[in-house]
Amino acid sequence: MTARNLFIVIMTAGTVGLAGCATKETATLNVQTMSASDASAQRDGVSVAVASFEDARPEKSRLGVRHHLWGGETTFTVPGGKPGDLVARVMADYLKQKGWRAQTVSVGSSDADVLISGKLLDFSVDADSGVGRTEITAKTKLVIEATNKADGSIVRMTLNGDGVEKVFWFEPEDAQQLVSEVLAESLDKLVQNTKVEEKKGAKVVRLK
Q1: In this predicted structure, what is the pLDDT of residue 38?
Q2: Sign of the CA dihedral 182, 185, 191, 194?
Q3: Three-class SS state of 92
Q4: Which end of the chain is more exposed for a tag (fewer CB within 10 A), N or C?
Q5: Whole-prediction pTM value?
Q6: Do the domain assignments include residue 127?
Q7: pLDDT < 50 regions, the chain
């Protein structure tokens, strides 16, 4: 056997061995808001109840998937398996950082100044691994509806976010961090585009 033939045999055997290692795994991503306190937060801020978001995505069983270099897959999920519940919790935590008295509730079961409900049109993170790199892509598209208890008025808003990152060595935490950052940026837009007003002794939110 020539040296060239030996090289081909070794490479072929190696390729077969690597293809045989292709696996399907699951990674749970604990998506959360970034820990950035707001110095202007007020203790007596508007009270907000955040209901679970309706999951209107075509693919509801997962958050996304990572395609491995040699054919394996890792499916990304969230704790509890319900992205709509997770987004509501993340939003409530974020609003608390901004000085709003926020909590998650069932629809129609709160006396808060504002009831926020919504719909997930896109909430995903995917990763594709190649030689020496993994590209991660995260997207969010949230439809927000905020109902003021004081006068029944409704504020509606659609929030879009996306982000891309490339890493050399991939860990599930990389996908978790990117989708957390993209979601936090969307929530930044929510706060930046709304204002709190007083109406007959109660607080209401309006679009700026």
Answers
A1: 54
A2: negative
A3: helix
A4: C
A5: 0.83
A6: yes
A7: 1-20, 39, 43
